Amino acid sequence: MIGAAHCECLIYQAQSLKEKRAVVKSITTKMKQKLNVSVAEMDYHDLWQRTAITIVSVNRDTTIVEKELQRACEFMDQLPELERTITEFEWL
Questions:
Q1: I need a surface site. Which of 41, 42, 51, 81 has the fewest CB within 10 A?
Q2: Are 29 and 53 in contact (CB under 8 A)?
Q3: pLDDT band of 18, cuts 50, 70, 90
Q4: How far, in Å, are 8, 15, 32, 40, 41 from residue 11 at the CA level?
Q5: What is the pLDDT of residue 38?
Q6: 70: pLDDT confidence band, cut at 50, 70 and 90?
């Protein structure tokens, strides 16, 4: 089972693309290290305070994939740097 969570987020404190990229890189690196997921910025590359991050997990057990994606979303919610606004889940 492949599960993906597409998360649109706001980064209120970013005042430039450089600051935004630093925040996104920090978040994606932490998620990759702490969770069993793959993470990438997928959209809004030219906007400073907006980003779209996709998180993907793969496992033969659907419940494990779902739990990993939920843990990743909860991890993002605990970060003060960004606010998750819209999340869409996709199952393949």
A1: 42
A2: no
A3: very high
A4: 10, 9, 20, 16, 13
A5: 96
A6: very high
Say what percent of the chain tops pLDDT 90: 92
Q: Which residues contact 67 (CB under 8 A, 6 or more apart)?
A: none
3-state secondary structure of 50: strand
Positive or negative: CA dihedral 6, 12, 18, 23 = negative
Domain boundaries, the chain: 2-91
| 35 three-state secondary structure | coil
Helices (H), the chain: 17-34, 62-78
The conformation of residue 55, written as its DSSP 8-state character, comes to E
Q: Tokens representing 82?
A: 């960004």
Joined tokens for residue 42: 């997928």
Q: Does the structural domain 2-91 have CATH classification 1.10.10.60?
A: no
